[in-house]
Amino acid sequence: MKVPFAPPRMDQRVIDEVADTLLSGWITTGPKTKKFEKLLTAYCNVPNVLALNSATAGLEIMLRWFGVKEGDEVILPAYTYSATANVVIHCGAKPVFVDVGDDFNILPSEIENAINKNTKVIMPVDFGGLPCDFQKVNNIFQSENIKNKFVPATDVQQQLGRILVLSDAAHSFGATVNNIKTGALTDVSVFSFHAVKNLTTGEGGAIALNLPKPFDNQSIYDYLCIYTLHGQNKDALAKMQKGNWRYDIIEAGFKCNMTDIMASIGLVELERYAETLERRKQIVANYNEAFAKYPWAQLPEFKSNWRESSYHLYPIRIKNCTEKQRDAIMQKMFDADIAVNVHFIPVPMFSFYTKLGYSLQHYPKAKDNYEREISLPLFYNLTEEQQQYVIDNLIKAVNETLVHRPAINS
Ligand SMILES: *Cc1c(COP(=O)(O)O)cnc(C)c1O
Q1: Counting CB atoms within 10 angstroms of each CB, which of 66, 74, 142, 288 has the fewest?
Q2: Is 344 helix (H, G, I), strand (E, B) or coil?
Q3: β-pairing, 48-52 with 73-77?
Q4: CA 17–ligand 1 middle distance (angstroms)
């Protein structure tokens, strides 16, 4: 049996919606993108959402909007995808990595130690779809002691008067903290609609704006529409109106708008997203039930009395397991035609970052999580039979790999 990792759910409904766009005479940013944004805004219950061609673009755009530049520092977890750190480098600023906890998310207690007068932004990551402890994270920035350390260098920074919380919510669309959905949990959140994410548009992403007063999120949204389209003060659709050809470039903007082709996939995905989450939840429950009885299995967290995941990944950790043994277990899964993955190779491990002087040794929990983690297949069309096949093969692979190893520190 062959089990892929996370193929998208593409069917006739998606094909019909995309075909409708393709034949409509309008394929770039237009009515479907605007409709998708409106529905995302309602879903997240935030003032505004801007759809773009990736989460990476969204994160970078917001760093630049906040005026992050050389000499500035941005705090982020060591345990994330490289995009979170790369965008900080793009802006000329310094990524300051912080270790993570047992839930794979940034440790609020460590954030405070990393803050200094150069800190402009913190980017928490909702790993695997499980939201960070935003109450704790937001509290840090509201405290007078931390606010006093903030040195504003731009009008926007002056207006906020504190460190910006820019949430990398690439995994966590639809997740909640105290029944409030991601997007509405902090200042700004960025979602990814990449092909392997819970809700996809092929490539794609969105910025959820939820800035406090005195910010006007609508005017920031209007500005960002221009900033993400060359700084051109009229979009393609507006220019198409009769006689409305003349436009201005008000700054050297970026080019990362979402197309209506992408948005049409998103519209179908969003309409059936509750069903998607329900299905993912069932699969997770099935995995949990199967593995709970094994002392080697450290089950991931999905739900507690205050937060609930979007069930994006199933990141199981094998207890008392070396990196080599983890790799051997993965190889056995590959040999059985099961696609598994590791989320993530911590960013400080990559050659680009080690050359800058970063080292994984400073993030012991990220290292430990990484060495023992395996992400199992999790997607809408994963059948019961396939789930059982994954379960049986993981149990077999672990037993074969760890069998001769005495339990030292279980
Ligand atoms: C996928 C991902 C991103 C990047 O999303 P894109 O839409 O591909 O740019 C950023 N952060 C995390 C944690 C991700 O998993």
Answers
A1: 142
A2: coil
A3: unpaired
A4: 25
> Looking at residues 267-280, what average pLDDT do you find?
98
Domain 273-403: CATH class, spelled out: alpha beta
Q: How many angstroms separate the alpha carbon of residue 209 from the centre of ligand 1?
A: 18
Q: Which fold has domain 12-271?
A: Aspartate Aminotransferase; domain 2 (3.40.640)
Ligand 1 binding residues, C-beta < 6 A:
54-56, 80-81, 83-84, 125, 168, 170-171, 192, 194, 205
How close is the Cα of 250 to the center of ligand 1, in Å?
A: 29
Q: Tell whether the model's pLDDT for residue 405 goes beyond 60.
A: no
Which residues, other chains included, contact 111 with Cβ-Cβ below 8 Å and sequence gap of 6+?
75, 98, 122, 137, 140
Interval 336-371: pLDDT, tens:
999 999 999 999 999 999 999 999 999 999 999 999
Cα torsion for 218, 222, 228, 233, to the nearest 10°?
A: -170
Region 362-384 average pLDDT = 98
The residues spanned by each domain of the chain are 12-271, 273-403
Measured between alpha carbons, how far is residue 77 from residues 187, 218, 333 in Å?
18, 30, 29
Counting ligand 1 atoms within 8 A of each CB, the residue from 80, 81, 189, 207 with the most, and so the one to mutate, is 81
For ligand 1, pick from 56, 203, 347 the residue to mutate: most ligand atoms within 8 Å of CB: 56
Which residue owns the Cα nearest ligand 1 atom 8?
194
Structure tokens at 131: 């939201």
94-98 and 119-122: which strand pairing?
unpaired
The ligand 1 atom nearest the CA atom of 343: 15
Ligand 1, residue 192: give the atom nearest the CA. Answer: 7
Q: What is the structure's pLDDT at 154?
A: 98
Output 236 or 269, whichever has higher pLDDT: 269
